[in-house]
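Lest this sound abstract, we let one protein speak, letters for residues, whole numbers for local backbone shapes, and leave readers to judge:
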Amino acid sequence: MKLKIVAAFTSLFTAVFPALAQEITLTSKTGGLTVYGELLAFDGQTYQVETDLGRITISDNDLTCQGEGCPSPEDRLDVFSVISTDRLTRQTLADLVLSYAQKSEKIAKQKGPFLKPNTIELAHRTDDLESIISFKSDVINLNFTANGAGTPVIYDAVQIISSAPELSGGINTEILRKIWTGEISNWNELGGADQKIRLILPIFADDIYNSFAAFDPEMTAENISPNIEFFLSPDAIKQAITQTSDAIGLIYQSHPMDQTIALDLGCDITAMPSEFAIQSLEYPLAFPLTMSSNNAYAPRTARNLQTFAQTPPAQDIFSSVGLTPLVGSKIDALYLGKRFGDAIAAADNDVGLTALKDFKAFTNTATRLAATLYFAPNGRDLDNRSSALMDAISAHLATDAYANKTIITVGFSDSDGGANANQAISLTRARHVQSLLSDKNITAGAVGYGEIAPIGCNDTEYGRAKNRRVEIWIQD
């Protein structure tokens, strides 16, 4: 099932209209630019004007138009649809679009009654006109998907839940993989009673398959156990798990519950789906919901809606329905203690006590934000997901909350190579992110701690990829 909002917005989407070759004056809202001439064409996004200096093409962004040739409100319409993941309700998407309209000082009017159960129609106009346009067939699709390409706007997670006493201490990757594929199908293989293991998924499980495949390439939709059961809703799965001890359930949920099972990642590293672990993507089954256009020509309003979705008002809307914001969580004392314990337990022989003491001294004076940036396989550039997060992280760090704080980018590496070389690599990564923040007018320091404090097991490629990262720390 897909949810869809169809929104009509004044300002951009139009065909060439009859009132051409008439004089107009275009003025920037700041008053720094004025263009005078004959309007030759307007495609809903750009003006083509014949001026005394020749023909120019200029974007409609932040311009006011005066003159008989200016496009009328009826000529300036954005028409696009928002196709959503099943995790977001119609009302949540409506709240998002209406909140954007309010922030932009535009008028939004929700249409009804709904003609289709999966469709909301919104009309959006820049003036006080009450007329509602007819929707056209050539709408722009603005996809709102999980684990997709585009602008990350919020986080969700898959949780493993069970009341089985055999899993009370957590589940490691090898056992999870064998249950997933059906190689382990009875609890007696895990020291329990002689009864079948029930693996229960929601009926809409695409994002679960994608999350597990990204975590372990053997856990795909194609090789999942044939004895799998599908339930209609997460609530039904939760109810089944609380009533029986023979089942393992996989659900979409950002916040842990009593039956949530910890993931044993190896090397004495475990992960639970806390808000911090999801924001930092240290919980392996966390994933972003992203927005992107599937059309090269996306109206400006559609593009601006993606930008707005990363702002605090939009993040509050998403958070109110149980999803996890992109940024904002800070490390707590319990997590920090576990983190240092993991650093000691996983340290290779060439990581000296002095390096561990230096790291501990640093963590005593600073607070870590959950925002974490990971690197592409070449080890030098941010991966695509992290690159897409830079705007949201930069905007967060630019708020007044950090005005009198010291921001530090802290680099880490995997354990391949020697400790000295890895320390140098980690510092290079920290300086790379420092430079990216500088481009956003944010001043930050940079340090590197090499292979200290892994968040993934260096025995696996997945774990090594998690360890090639830069964290953001704050000092008073």
About this structure: The radius of gyration is 26 Å.
